[in-house]
Structure prediction request, 109 residues.
Amino acid sequence: MCSRVLPVFLIVLFIAGAEVHAQGISGTVTDDSGVALSGASVVVKGTTMGTVTDTRGVFAVNYTGAYPVTLAISFIGFRTQEVELDAAVSNLRIQLEEEIAFGGEVVIS
Prediction:
């Protein structure tokens, strides 16, 4: 009986550990009026881990490292925003502010 219980216990323990370890960071990126930003870059600073938001502005990063961690979110025409997280988070909502850049004078001769 004991020889059957131990393998089952180890399998359950492994699966439970995998679930905890598989937690990551997910959420939505929008502009300041709530419109989803498709193609925004979401990067875990100090790593090579990152992703791009889908057509609904949704992203998911399977980060399994140590916390706290800083996310850098960027999109063309918007200010890059950094968010510090103390633990794995789902349903994170990030609003980027529009950045207006004025170009200098252009002289064509």
